[in-house]
Amino acid sequence: MPDKKSTGESSRWMLESIHVDNGGPNEDGSESVPSAKPPLTRSVSNASSSLSRTSSSLSRTKSNMGGAVTRNQSTTKKRNAAPSNQPQKIERTASSATRGLNGLRFLDRTVTGRETDAWKSIERRFNQFATPEGKLPKEKFGICVGMGDSKEFAAEVFEAMARRRNIDAEDGITKDELKIFWEDMTRKDYDCRLQIFFDMCDKDGDGKVTEDEVRELIILSASENKLTNLKKNASTYASLIMEELDPDHHGFIEIYHLETLLSLMVNNASQPEAMQDQTANTLTKAMIPSKYRDPVSKFLTHSKEVLHENWKKIWVVSLWLFINLLLTMWKIEQIKTNPLFQISGLCLSFAKATAETLKFNMALVLFPVCRKTLTNLRSTFLSTFIPFDDNINFHKLIALAIAIQSFIHTFLHLTCNFPKISTYPRDTFMQLVGPALNFIQPTYLDLMLTTVSITGIFMILVMSFSFTLATHSFRRNIVKLPWPLSNLAGFNAFWYAHHLLVLAYVFLIMHGWFLIIDKPWYYKTTWMYVAVPVSLYTHERVFARYQDLKFPVSIIKAVIYSGNVLALYMSKPPEFKYKSGMYLFVKCPDVSGFEWHPFSITSAPKDDCLSVHIRCLGDWTKDLRDRFQKVCEPPAAKPAAKGNLMRMETRAFSTSNTNEDNLDQQQQEGFPKIIIKGPFGAPAQNYGKFDILLLIGLGIGATPFISIIKDFLNRMNPNVMHSRQLGKYPERAYFYWVTREQGSFEWFKGVMDDIATYDTNNIIEMHNYLTSVYEEGDARSALIHMVQKLQHAKNGVDIVSESRIKTHFARPNWRKVFSGMADTHQYSRIGVFYCGSPTLTKPLRELCQEFSLETTTRHGIRQLRTGWADGPAYITQCPIQTGQSYVYNYTITGQRGTLFWHAHISWLRATVYGPIIILPKLGADYPFAKPYKEVPIIFGEWFNADPEAIISQALLTGGGPNVSDAYTINGLPGPLYNCSVKDTFKLKVKAGKTYLLRMINAALNDELFFSIANHTLTVVDVDALYVKPFETKTILIAPGQTTNILLKTKPKYPGAKFFMMARPYVTGLGTFDNSTVAGILEYEAPQHSTKKLPLFKPTLPALNDTSFATNFSNKLRSLASAQFPANVPQKVDKQFFFTVGLGTNPCPHNQTCQGPTNATMFAASINNISFVMPTTALLQSHFSGRSNGVYLSNFPIDPIMPFNYTGNPPNNTMVGNGTKVVVLPFNTSVELIMQDTSILGAESHPLHLHGFNFYVVGQGFGNFDPNKDPSNFNLADPVERNTVGVPSGGWVAIRFLADNPGVWFMHCHLEVHTSWGLKMAWVVLDGKLPNQKLLPPPADLPKC
Fold first, then answer.
1. Which of 726, 714, 733, 754 is closest to 606 using CA atoms?
2. What is the 3-state secondary structure (H, E, C) of 203-225?
3. What is the DSSP letter of 1162?
4. Pairing with 162, which of 238, 322, 497, 1259 sits 20 to 30 Å away (CA)?
5. Most confident range, picked from 8-22, 293-307, 713-727
6. Between 661 and 163, whose confidence is greater?
């Protein structure tokens, strides 16, 4: 709305600098995520038959609101070209030159700020590599300047710069010449680096680059970036560049052509990226609530979030620790009755206690590795409170406890118990334990040679060996041992060593059975502990063996890809039921008869076959690949499919279909035999629980997600028959695949092609990232980026993946990915699944925590959930049609006092309204003396014309509507208007009584002062909520507000009548009904009194008495008592800043309007968004999940363009238009600042929020100061209401708890402002509990 002049910033257009790198490195070293670019366009100059310099896109600078379009142009000379043929060149500004530093970088750090230190290191390397003649050879140039990994490219740069400087560099260059080269490569002048790049192409130095020269540079760039396919197709892509830049077929391009192409690339990319940055900044503000802003609250909040996220793990581990502690304490107490306790004391107690916990943990450690059992339990209710996905971590934790307990147990026996037993005085020893040991006191050696000691030692040795080989360093083959110990490292060693633990369990049972002091069998508890888990584990292994025979598979197809990947396509047994995301075990008896290896299933459940993709790195996988390679044959040459480049692969085909009975037996005999078992559960199988999926795979880590993507595709593919899916399914999936090798894209090219074919609704968004390519902006990859954009724009085919899925270069900026996801799907449940290197696990987990700010606080809940009965047309229901009816069924909870009902479409509420009286609960009292009588008093407006016709005419012309002709009290205008003396409301009272007046302002467009002459009023309730009573002569009541006041009459008959009068409180510049409505307060007169009584008039505040309005509002305070507490949200989850005020819309074409000018129409907005009423009710759209095309959930959380809200109004008063809402998770605590603006004049706005009460925690004048004003907030006893006036030229702060699911309207209760668009809606999502969910719509809900 406001233009940039109001903020003091410059306002102009300029051509941005031409560069390639839009973002540069982020803090984590990753690159900015490229956004989708539109196809490149070109225009041909009529004058020169070459690309016009004006074809470069114009993009706005940071200060871009308003201003004329200007260009600063100058002419420059092309090398070896006549001045008369020079094209015009666009001059760059200082700001664009600064941005240009990121473009065409030859070194990793073009501008460091410490160039002197950088040169010193280069100088040292020069001295190291220079020849005796003091010259640096060409082959050492790259290493010297920091391009050591790009020797060929560095050599080309060397030759280009030597040609440019006319230096004979055949024998090398001197130190001074090296410094000149280095300064050219790092200088701030972008044109200089552009010239170097052009000179690399222009090998003959004639100022013209031919197609062959472009091809050579493409080959060089492809080689530097490890792009084999690009290198093979260099001629094709060189032709593509020439076709784009040389449309008239001159056979060459010049430097400005190259610059034009780069400018088109940058400008096409810059705007979306800028918008993304702005979105990210906006999101950051939105998602950092106050509880994260100081260290203490941040720590406490973070701790709560950690507890909330890990509560399953915490309670399971806590239970485990508690059981261990309980067993320890029980055993210590029990052992005190043992005679040996008098000999060994606490040594024996703790040794036996650790033995007891050791037995428990040796039993428990088997449960987390019972895969089949866990897979079945994942689908039960137990998964809601047991973290089955962390079974291996729990297994490791128990194993660690076993190791510690074994050490303590052994140490205590060997160093304490055995020495004490063997050296204890013989006589006393015999008295204590002689009968149990046949009256023989054993020596230390005797004790060591007992069965219990020998089995214990063997058990320790087996466990130590197995546990050592199970550590990360050994299992991952990180430890490099000398031969012959080298076989002890690696997965095979871990696998076989773990099977030795069978002996450990045998020794454990023997250890607990053959005791030094024998006991009855039922006291020997070791076998009791391990019997059930050992039986369960044994049953699983035996069942798995049976399953091997039940699930034989035949190889349908085997594919060996580059990148050491073997893909196996196998027949799927009918009984093999699995979900996407699961895994299976594979065994190849030809390789090893005992080894089983887990692999993710890459086929979808509805596919005809099973598939796995195996990265061949270890001995077993390499051997498997070699065996399949022997029977595989290259496919016959065939033409590439339309729109795709040729893909080479080596495959073996069976000669028939996937039916096992029909498979060619002879060919199957040639394949290695494959046996599978499974399927087994994995975290990825739970993807269906989420609304949105973010799938992240590194290299072969993409495999578990390919199955999920295929499942999505099967649901889209009309040729795939599948049963009707019940329950929830994700709405959208984002797949980020990061790999180092171009060949990796061959693995799943078919999936990428299927996405492009079947995903017409953009349900799957796939992002491929190739990290072998230098980051965008590096000169070594500049041509790669050019070719990528041109090829994708023209043919729709990616140069890397050779599919229609575009490949990005370098690494993703994960923070931008997460912030973009959170912004796009602000209140959806996003499931993040990752498979890849552990290095990225922690950063991704931290980002998940950072962007998951759902509160866990629970307050008292008003169980309304009946938004269907709220009433606003096209918000919660469609209008009730003529002749139809609708029953509003609702329950009011937690409110008592006065409300009112009214029509809620257009201006029908001018006449359709009435009171709602909410009495205290039966048997409950008012918090004040019970009144003698209760009287409702409703203010309204009277129009001598049809109010609907008035507003319709105003909206048509764009002007202000005609004002009312009178105000009314209970429908009567009173004696102060012409011809209405008889139509006067009279309130008859008795002396000495107290009356409760229930005041309601049902007027359309005016706040009202109200007073009764010579009487004092006591305010006790506003908006159906009690307040601390206070006395006043006058009250202020805005449209939509209610106020209960106590009127205490005179003790005796006063012999007079008193006017009750109301007139408007006016702050705006528009016209208003400047009249006064009056009723009469009459006392019950003594009998037979006929005396004519005087009539007293009250003194009302001035029409614009904002001081009174402010003082009256400040007196309103909640009771904040034990019975009626003020549950003010003390901490805020989300903060919003809304500007409210007037503005303008442009007048329709060929029409003269009656707005502020003849070319504008009046409008009103919140945060510069004038709400457009939908044609379908928002609540129905939300409930049915069909909001697309009805509303957007991107309502701005703060002003789009900040300005001096209460100062001089801006020149630009135009508003934006749209149907936008704010979406809140259930139970979110919200703080909302509403700021009045001076646009078309400051004005008070009574804002009404449906569905909630809120606390008015602060208000003031001028612009809200977020640094100072919150310190003055009243969080103890602020007034609680549903309608509050935003002060004229000021602000108001409210807080509320979003504990009422549904769609809730918020609007100005000045009806003209609502008609102009000063309204919006909040969408509150369902909670997790049944009583936190929106009820289904009633059967008689009106339909649109």
1. 714
2. CCCCCCECHHHHHHHHHHHHHHC
3. E
4. 238
5. 293-307
6. 163
Report the alpha-carbon distance of residue 380 to residue 857 in Å, rounded: 28
Q: Tell me the β-bridge partners of 570.
A: 555, 610
CA distance 791 to 173: 39
Cβ atoms of residues 658 and 571 within 8 Å: yes
Q: List, for residues 1058-1112, the tens digit of each pLDDT value.
A: 999 999 999 988 888 999 999 999 999 887 666 789 999 999 999 999 999 999 9
Q: Is 658 a residue whose pLDDT tops 70?
A: no
The least confident of 344-358, 363-377, 485-499, 1026-1040 is 485-499
CA-CA distance, 1169 to 1318, in Å (whole number)?
8
- The sign one gets for the Cα dihedral 114, 116, 120, 123 is positive
- Which residues have a Cβ under 8 Å from the Cβ of 154 and sit 6 or more positions away? 141, 142, 145, 147, 148
Query: 692-698 and 830-835 as β-strands: parallel, antiparallel, unpaired?
Result: parallel
**Cα-based angle 385, 391, 393 (whole degrees, multiple of 5):** 115
- Specify the DSSP class assigned to residue 1124: S
Q: Which helix (H) or strand (E) holds 446?
A: helix 444-448
Q: What is the pLDDT of residue 884?
A: 84
Contact present, 835 and 598 (Cβ < 8 Å): no
For residue 1290, list its beta bridge partners.
1261
At 579, is the secondary structure helix, strand, or coil? coil
- Pull the structure tokens for residue 726: 């019940």
Mean pLDDT computed over 1046-1059: 94
Single out the residue of 1109, 1083, 1060, 1037 nearest to residue 1288, CA to CA: 1109
Residues 1046 and 698: their CA atoms lie apart, in Å, by: 72
Question: Tokens standing for 600?
Answer: 């993710």
**Contact in structure between 1023 and 1280 (CB atoms under 8 Å):** yes
The percentage of residues in the chain with a pLDDT greater than 90, rounded to a whole number, is 32
pTM for this prediction:
0.46
What is the DSSP-derived secondary structure letter of residue 661?
A: G
SS3 label, residue 712? helix
Mapped onto helix, strand or coil, the DSSP state of residue 746 is helix
Residues 1068/1243, Cβ–Cβ less than 8 Å: yes
Is the pLDDT reported for residue 969 higher than 90?
yes
DSSP label at 1049?
Answer: -
Closest to 731 measured CA to CA, from 760, 768, 766, 689: 689
Phi/psi for 1178 (5° steps) reads: -60, -40
Query: Could you tell me the two tokens for 361?
Result: 């943990």
DSSP 486: G
Q: What is the dihedral of CA 1234, 1240, 1242, 1243, to 10 degrees?
A: -80
Judge whether 897 and 1024 are in contact, CB under 8 Å.
yes
Please say whether the beta carbons of 1114 and 1076 come within 8 A. Answer: no
Contact between 779 and 105 (Cβ < 8 Å): yes
| Residues 1030, 1119: Cα–Cα separation, whole Å | 12
Distance CA 56, CA 14 (A): 12
CA distances from 20 to 2, 16, 213, 1045, 1141 (A): 33, 12, 21, 70, 43
Q: What is the arithmetic mean of pLDDT over 162-188? A: 81
Sign of CA dihedral 330, 331, 337, 343: negative
How far, CA to CA in Å, does 581 sit from each of 210, 390, 676, 956, 1012?
51, 16, 16, 58, 75
**Terminal-residue alpha carbon distance, the chain:** 33
Token couple for 1122? 């034990």
Which residues sit opposite 873 in a β-bridge?
Answer: 877
pLDDT band at 291 (very low <50, low <70, confident <90, very high): low
- For tokens 């106590």, name the residue: 1046
Question: 252: buried, middle or exposed (CB in 10 Å: 19+, 13-18, 0-12)?
Answer: middle
User: What is the spatial distance between Cα 676 and Cα 542, in angstroms, rounded to a whole number?
Assistant: 14
Regarding beta strands 732-739 and 764-770, do their DSSP bridges make them parallel or antiparallel, or are they unpaired? parallel
- What rounded mean pLDDT belongs to the chain? 78
